[in-house]
Design brief:
The protein is about 75% helix and about 0% strand. By secondary structure, the chain is an all-alpha fold. The longest helix has 24 residues, at about 20-40. The protein starts with 5 loop residues before the first helix and ends with a helix.
């Protein structure tokens, strides 16, 4: 597929004659990466699918509010991360999960799903990630797995770079300690 710029994509979406093609192109360009970030946060495929769909629906409804202060990619990630964090908060409240119960449910899912096909260390890493607070897990995922810079993560999460560096450092230490225990 030929890569098109954010500007070209926005022009396609704003033009009634090419709007549908623009939306399809937006989804084709970013769906896989958006899904990946969401899946790392919520773990369960069906939940990640729903949140990915909600992310794009919200983006389509609010595309006119995109002012170009960041890239479309960053804007979509911000929507996806907010949707993921909101989903996790609602799920914990709706099912009256304590943090420990929620971790146990997610760990069980990791053990019994086909999500992780790699070696045991990957499973241990994913379980250690589940023990992090949601925001720390998000920062760790964006930095470690998505290889985003702190500037971009700052735009996505609307958090200062200093706070992000501290979150990442604390997350990495907690994961390191968790992996030593196992």
């Amino acid at each position: 597929m030929i890569s098109i710029s954010d500007l070209e994509l926005l022009q396609m979406i704003q033009n009634p004659d090419t709007r549908e093609k623009g939306y399809r192109s937006l989804i084709e360009m970013y769906q896989r990466r958006i899904y990946g970030v969401i899946r790392k946060m919520v773990v369960i495929h069906e939940d990640a699918d729903d949140i990915t769909q909600n992310t794009f629906v919200k983006a389509f409804k609010n595309i006119n509010n995109f002012h170009g202060n960041s890239s479309l990619f960053t804007w979509l990630y911000r929507i996806a991360t907010n949707e993921s964090l909101n989903f996790l908060q609602k799920k914990k409240k709706r099912f009256f999960f304590s943090i420990d119960d929620h971790e146990a449910v997610m760990e069980s899912y990791l053990d019994h799903s086909g999500m992780i096909t790699g070696d045991e260390i990957e499973r241990k890493l994913q379980k250690a990630l589940l023990k992090l607070p949601d925001k720390q897990r998000l920062v760790f995922n964006l930095r470690y797995f998505e290889d985003l810079g702190y500037d971009e993560i700052s735009q996505i999460t609307e958090t200062s770079i200093g706070a992000l560096k501290a979150s990442y450092h604390h997350a990495a230490k907690k994961i390191e300690n968790e992996l030593r225990i196992e």
